[in-house]
Amino acid sequence: VSATVMGSSIGCIGLQTQKLMELPGMPELILDMTRALLRGLYLYEAGADKFVCKPGEVCTAGAKILNTTQDFADVTVRFTVQKDNRPVFIAEKRVLAMPRTYTECTHPVQFGEAGGYTVRTELFANDALLDTVTQEVFAHVYRPGASKDFVRVQGRDFVLDKKQWNLFGISYWPLYFPSYDREEYWMGWLDKSNYDPIEVEKDLVRLEQMGMNCLFTRLDGNIFGRSIEQLKDFMLRLERHHMRLSLSYANATNPLHYSPDAFRALMEQAELYKNPTLFGHDISWETGHQFFMENYLPQWQDGWERWICERYGSVENAERSWGIPVDRDAAGAVITPPKRELEFDGPWRVKICAFRRYMDDFLSRVWNDAVRDMRSVDPDHIIGYRMGCFYKDTGPALTATNKHTDYSSLEGYSFMEDENGRYASQCLTKVSQLLTGGKPVVWVEYGNNLIGSSGNSAWSALMWERETLTPPAHRYHDQLRYYEQFFRMFRACDIAGSVPWWYAGGFRRVECSYCGLVSPDGTLRPAARAYEALGKEWLLPERKHKTPTRIISYDPDLHAAGWGKFYLGSGPIDRNENSWAAAEGRTIPGVPEYGIGVHACRSAEEDGVEIAFTTPGFGTTSANTPLLAVGNVPYCGNEPMKYLDGEFNTVALIQSDGSLVPVKNGAKIRGAESAIGLRAEAGNLREATWLAGSQTGDVVLQIRCKKRIIAELPMQKDTPYLADAVFEAQNIVFPPDEPLQLRLSAKDRCEFGEIWTFELTR
Questions:
Q1: Contact 611, 548 (CB under 8 A)
Q2: What angle do CA 414, 415, 419 make, to 5 degrees?
Q3: pLDDT for residue 184 is more than 80
Q4: DSSP 344
Q5: C-alpha to C-alpha distances, 630 to 57, 399, 558, nearest whole angstrom
Q6: In terms of CB atoms within 10 Å, which end of the chain has fewer, N or C?
Q7: Element (H, E) at 325
Q8: pLDDT grade for 469, boundaries at 50, 70 and 90
């Protein structure tokens, strides 16, 4: 009904063979289809406006009638509601269907007691039935889950009802969805024009048979009225099939662009509060690796200069510590370092170590603010985010946000399809287990593109069989080998969960990829069979964790590339680049030089021992950690400490009546005369444990005014890596109308961490 296709109709037969007329019954079928095309009257959409409603709720049934002819048509729409195959409601409406457009009609309909209903919408003309749409509707009583019903994190494990719960899942989009055109695809598969509950139900039956206990998916689009009802239906179906959902609404929950109002609206409208079918929030999508890309680096330069002045005291102090000047543009403004310095060693190493620390502090602050707000709204569901690929440079995703997420979500497409690639992914897993403080590690994306490299430029190198409209047969074996490479790594690293990319087979047009484990006809590919066996034999059963017997220590400040140097060395060639080159009949010379972490994993396997990684900072405390600044230079009183760093979670004034008044960083607060004390909570972001007490090296919170210490607040207990400390004191005399500053201090040794400023006014 658009201007370009007005009056047109098309019918499709989903068979690859072109000898249609030789199939039994095909002439009659084509004739029947032709009559339907010529009549030009159809139900374009029909059914109830909700998939899930409350018992007794009055909903709206409707029909969108498409008339492709040039004539007005007198038609009848019949709505029938059935329960247990018995009609409980019937209504008819006469409608004048307008030519060459859509005509809509609606009718109120009430659902009774809890249970499943069928809404049948029929279109009649001249007493002849032309079209039918059938829909399931659930009258459902929402019951909040008890505490034991939610997945929690305990040490290295996910726990459900006090038992180890290993995550065996897959990234889910319906089997029918990959080849949607770009405009429809990015409306999201949960959009009401794309959601097909009958096909989704078939998928869930298949996934339950495979043993899946969790699916990961994403809510695209920003019109809740077009997707929330489908999401509620999907979650009810998941509950019936004993699976849980990790949901990403990254449009609102990405901490860099967090929208608290949108998050609250989603939780309320989708009834996600205390819903145990929701496993957790996947708050950001492939965020992390791109922070150090050329086009992203300029975005961080304003914060970079502020951080330098806060943590070093001045740009001049920083330059003395680095031994080289800060980077500046032609006008003399401070700018971020060039990307090449983040990948290769040189005289800039100390400066780059400082820049990496800045990015860690900046992103931790952003994640802290967003995640704390999410947890205040929803304390029952765990939080993670998929970090993106780790190729050439780990970026800050591996190091910056671990305090604020419940588990680590690794993603890998760029590991070579060989033993070195397996050891590289094993090394990355072990590093993540270290830097998260032992939280669960899940590989939330990995897989093999059966048709070569993805992206717009991949069309010229497409691996495709035009006769069968499938990837070449050998690519299914390549997919299996790549999955088996990951499975070996999973066992070696004792991971807590796996979520490959993805369930849906078929040609994904938006990025020229074909990654699904299940063929478009529902057949499990060899890699899917192997994954099913892995889940049932190893991933799902409870198991004891391995104890490492070989510990390898590494100092990421030894190299500008940080942890990237540890596992990538000089940087292996991307496996996608190899596949691309092979498709184009060329080779890439040279043997990748992997890092010492990869060689350590290989040696440990050859020697039959369990391996783990550490840094020189673990095992130290605020009293004995080396007095080194970032980049391994001496601490002289004006530099960020290497193994000590802190970040404020909350700061509040204690009033004379005992109430707390929150204090934001940089705030001016009236009523100085009623403030008698201060309470602050701060997180330990680095390896050294903070000691509580009043001895040399014990951590206190200093309140300063014009560099004069007006109070020192003690810490309530020792605070290890990624834990939180509480500082509190009363009977403090706050000077009014003077800038005040909070700073963490290891007594008589060093200052460290974020600086929090505020001012009390009369």
A1: yes
A2: 165
A3: yes
A4: S
A5: 62, 15, 10
A6: C
A7: none
A8: confident
CA-nearest of 563, 570, 575 to 594 is: 570
Contact 285, 252 (CB under 8 A): no
Cα-based angle 758, 761, 762 (whole degrees, multiple of 5): 160
The whole-angstrom separation of Cα 602 and Cα 585 is 31
In 55-143 the beta strands, taken as DSSP E runs, fall at: 58-67, 73-83, 86-97, 101-110, 115-125, 128-139
- Beta carbons within 8 Å of 544's beta carbon, 6+ residues apart: none
Cβ contacts of 674 within 8 Å, gap of 6 or more: 655, 656
The two three-digit tokens of residue 498, written as one number:
């796996």
pLDDT of residue 222: 86
What's the token pair of residue 519? 């063929």
Distance CA 2, CA 737 (A): 66
Q: What is d(CA 110, CA 54) in angstroms, rounded to the nearest whole number?
A: 10
* Cα separation values, 497 from 207, 211, 359, 488, 541, Å: 16, 13, 28, 14, 12
Per-residue pLDDT tens digits for 508-552 = 988 889 999 999 999 999 999 999 999 999 999 999 999 999 999
b/e 270-308 (16+ beta carbons within 10 angstroms → b): bbbbbbbbbbbbbbbbbbbbebbeeeebeebeeebbebb
Q: Between the CA of residue 701 and those of 69, 249, 449, 732, what are the distances in Å? A: 78, 38, 53, 13
Sequence-ordered list of residues with C-beta below 8 angstroms from that of 571, at least 6 positions apart, any chain: 343, 392, 564, 592, 593
Angle at which helices 349-377 and 315-322 pack, to 10 degrees? Answer: 120
Of 323 and 302, more confident: 323
Query: Which helix or strand (DSSP H or E) is residue 349 part of?
Result: helix 349-377
pTM > 0.70: yes or no: yes
The radius of gyration of the chain's CA atoms, rounded to the nearest angstrom, is 30
Distance CA 429, CA 423 (A): 10
pLDDT at 109 over 60: yes
For residues 413 and 443, what is the distance between their CA atoms, to the nearest angstrom?
Answer: 11
Q: For residue 300, what are its two tokens?
A: 């961080």
Locate all alpha helices (DSSP H) within 471-595, ordered by sequence: 474-493, 526-534, 563-568, 575-583
Helix (H, G, I), strand (E, B) or coil at 322: helix
Q: Identify which of 746, 665, 706, 629 has the alpha carbon closest to the alpha carbon of residue 311.
A: 629
Mean pLDDT throughout 419-436? 93
What is the chain's mean pLDDT, rounded? 91
Continuous H helices in 378-494: 397-400, 419-435, 474-493
Q: For the packed helices 526-534 and 474-493, what is the interaxial angle rounded to 10 degrees?
A: 20
User: Which tokens sit at 721?
Assistant: 């890596």
CA contacts within 13 A on the Cβ side of 293: 11
E strands present in 454-606: 497-498, 550-553
Rounded CA separation 327/318 (Å): 12
What letter would DSSP give residue 467?
T
